[in-house]
Amino acid sequence: MPTDPTSADPARARAWPAPAEVWPQPVLDLLATGGDRPVFADGDRIVTAAEMSALVRRVAAGLRAAGVGPGTGLALRLGVTPEAFAATVAAFAVGARVSGVRPGLTPAQQAHLLGSAPGPLVDDARLAQLVDTGDDGRPLVAAGRPGDVARIIWTSGSTGNPKGCAQTYAAMSAAWSPYPDRWPPAIADLAPRLDRYLVFGSLSSQVMLEYGILALTAGGTLVAARPPGFPGMITRHRATASVITVGKLHQLVQAQRADPTDLSSLRALVVSGSPLTPSRLAEALDVLGPVVFHGYGQTETGMITMVTPAEMLANPTALASVGRPPAVTDLSIRDAHGRPAAEGELFVRTPAQATAYWADPAETADVFTDGWVRTRDLARLDDDGYLHLLGRARDVVIVNANLVHAGPIERVLAADPDVAEAYVVGRPDDATGEAVHAYVVPAAGRTPDVARLRARVAQALGEAATPKTIQPIDRVPLAPSGKPDKRALTSTGPHG
């Protein structure tokens, strides 16, 4: 499918119909009518739909009693438990503006997040109190107002502080997960495989929750990974599906080659984060079988494209792509002047996309333009409609599916008295998909302390941003333009 020149015209942008019901009403209905069907497994504990519905009702009653309702900010800092899932659904059910506090943030980043989107915090201790609340007997009907912000999904924080992608109740209500009649072909292929879907990390994760709701809609069960880690958690829980990063996928493939374990229950691995090369995809399909789904999306947009195992095994072109977009998703490829192009920067429109960055009008204006989301990724579409990623229009490294921006790392390194200049590049990494590598020009008469530099970055920006290597260089190579040539640094490789 070649680029449609008219798709770049905001005046001709798609107008999606208003949703018939407000999120999370389909989930409330599924739980209320599910009876003894298991929906959440945590070790030996099995929670049925009826029990989960009762949990949601009690937490919702407690939230309402505390004054939480439509438009109220609410932060969730919770693990992966049946109660945490109930709290997530209940927070949406009462119409709150839900902000998830994910693991791994520095104290400063966490303070920034909680201060930027004020509201009461629900942690494990507070959740235990809410669960003990009695059912108030009120009908549990989704109370969110379509134009209100339903959730703030925070980015990795590699720019120093996380950015919050604000998604409205109207957008969440337009999502495909709880509606089988909306499932794109790739999702319709994936859904039946989610019989025992592993949940780990945080239910505030956009991907974890999205595929969790898909699993429940398809009749599956959410399974808490205790403890997480591939391949053990697949065999331990007889899991049929999971989300996996590029680095973890490579490690799993290598582990299966060296010491195979029983993965016969596995039917789907949804790969997210860094782009995956065709050779790595082919190897994964060969070793693991036809279970790998390669997806592409962003926090701002949700899923943009996906390619199924069957497509990749049948078509080498598909293997080299990130898949095709659903019919409801618009893609526009533009040159540096915003004109339609065969290759260029990718702009996207999805029904469930965010509308802004929370409390950041400047960044909002740069990324959310006339109903489109600027991905800052370079791409092209082939004649069969498959999307091929060509690189990035932004200077980032994707570490374990987290965007790590080079600029803030360079500024932290250059602030050290032993460093005159600092440059950061990314390289493929078997463990993390990509890894951060830094080059520093020493200040006159100084010898940079690599361990101290790494510690400075970790303290300021978090572990994901910490360079794997830091190499002193006499001077940075220059491009013909006279600007630093990071591509030349990338090609030299680390030497220390």
From TrEMBL:
The keyword Ligase is annotated on this UniProt entry: yes
Listed GO MF terms: acid-thiol ligase activity
Top-level taxonomic group: Bacteria
Keyword match Ligase: yes
Start and end residues of each stretch annotated as Disordered: 474-496
SUPFAM superfamilies recorded: Acetyl-CoA synthetase-like (SSF56801)
Full protein name: Acyl-CoA synthetase (AMP-forming)/AMP-acid ligase II
Keywords on record: Ligase
Pfam family membership, one: AMP-binding_C
The AMP-binding enzyme C-terminal domain, residue ranges: 409-483
Residue ranges annotated for the AMP-dependent synthetase/ligase domain, each copy included: 35-358
